[in-house]
Specification:
single chain; 224 residues; Rossmann fold; Arc Repressor Mutant, subunit A; 2 domains; five-stranded parallel β-sheet; two-stranded antiparallel ribbon; 9 helices; cytoplasm; 2C-system_Tx_regulators; DNA-binding
Length: 224
């Protein structure tokens, strides 16, 4: 199956880049563009015809609901996953009524976004493969699959806020860093930072490069 063409709409440049880096670690997706406001998002959707849009609700010129509304009026076959801090019932109902396939509330764990994207990928594959779907399959999809969408807890002693702080710092420096350098950069203890760095390597969000010198112990350096 060809990669799913994906567009990211997010007005916070740092958040956009972190999300981009994470999505690029997943197979089967091709990021074809990014937009920082609603006007640009609508233009890119019309021009590039993405299959899926990761859409923030709070944008400088309009909200995410207005973006979806204008795309629906143009009868574009575009799917949306809303990723936003908006969590009031009225907003969530409006978004689902206009056909968003998922709604992820910030702050979120990347595992939650990963599940949403993989679920969409499986759904799209099934739609392309089959002419008809059975009630049994739909029931399994709606109920069994939704049970899997859970926020897996982080290892004991780690928290999402600090993890995102470290990821944002790594995006900013743009070069391999030791645990000591990261600790100094964000003002945390080296032992604490090392635990987060090791976890981020295990979950494929950072790369580890072990550098050996002529003397002394090797140095672990981490990069996006």
């Amino acid at each position: 199956m060809e990669p799913i063409r994906l567009l990211i709409v997010e007005d916070d440049a740092m958040v956009l880049e972190v999300n981009r880096q994470f999505i690029e670690t997943l197979s089967g997706f091709q990021i074809i563009g990014a937009a920082a406001n609603g006007t640009e998002a609508i233009q890119l959707i019309i021009e590039k015809d993405p299959q899926l849009v990761i859409l923030d609700y709070y944008l400088p010129d309009m909200d995410g609901y207005q973006v979806i509304e204008r795309i629906r009026l143009r009868q574009k076959d575009t799917d949306f996953i809303m990723v936003t801090a908006a969590k009031d019932v009225e907003t969530i109902q409006k978004i689902f009524r206009f056909g968003a396939i998922d709604y992820i509330i910030k702050p979120f764990r990347f595992e939650r976004l990963k599940i949403a994207l993989e679920r969409y990928q499986q759904m799209l594959y099934r739609f392309r493969k089959e002419d008809e779907l059975t009630q049994k399959y739909l029931d399994e999809w709606v109920y069994t699959e939704r049970k899997k969408i859970e926020n897996k807890p982080l290892p004991k002693g780690l928290n999402e806020v600090t993890m995102k702080q470290i990821l944002q710092y790594m995006m900013k420096v743009k070069k391999p860093q030791s645990a000591e350098e990261v600790a100094k950069g964000i003002g945390l203890a080296r032992v604490t930072v090392r635990r987060y760095l090791e976890y981020l390597v295990q979950t494929n969000r950072l790369k580890l490069d072990v550098q050996y010198g002529s003397v002394g112990r090797p140095i672990n350096r981490y990069s996006i």
